[in-house]
Predict the structure.
Amino acid sequence: MAGVLPKTFTGKGYQVTVNADRSIIVKPGDWLSKYTMAIWGDYTEPHIKAFKRKINGVLSRIDNPNLIKAGETLFVTSQLPGEIGILPGEDQSGGSLPSTKRDVNNGLLELAAHHFDAATRLGGTPQTQNIAQGLIHFARGLWNCSANRPELEIAVLNFADAIRLNGEDFVQRVALGLGQFAYSLLNCSSNPEELRVAILNFNDAQSLSGQDQVQRVALGLSQFAYGLKNFSSNPGLLQSAVLTFNDPRKPGELVQMQRIALGLKQFARSLKA
């Protein structure tokens, strides 16, 4: 999509300029509701959440939408009115229709499954690197299914950053990316409420630590899988993924990260057309 930026949007008595890199320089007296009114003419939660700020070079959610500072740079990640390019499942009037499961990229989903499979047999850094690499391919494999590609692209960037991280930093970055990944597919899902619950759990996981953090990510992934039931061409395998994410496992069996990797492998393969 190209051709609309930079542009000054005016609506509902408000005005904001979005630069070519999708950035907005905050001016004194600005607030997010002013931006959403000027751009989309509303004040809805999805549009409020479309604005991100960079923290340590990573686009991240704005925890307090009422607290933005003059002079800082924010970024808008949702599709803007007038942007060129009709996404799969979207009509010319701007409405959104669910994409079909046939919009997936089988090759990328299989590549993702390959990395997840490798992660089940590894430990430490090689395991986390394979999970992060697999998530990149997983997101790319659903590129044509997404009705919010900027958000999906942010998810991919966070998965790429996760490759160099370990421990709780890795899980936190993956949880952030998974929340963005799920959010990018909301308009394509026949079960968006399940995706919204998944996003809440991914967001919560970022504030947890240790086993609780990983367990919350696993819970979010089971809800993520349920949210994409309409994409699955193998419901049995998708159900296996959900059970794997939910299975607490006994000591001596698969540990949590291995279970997540196994579930992700099943999840990715269940979506292949």
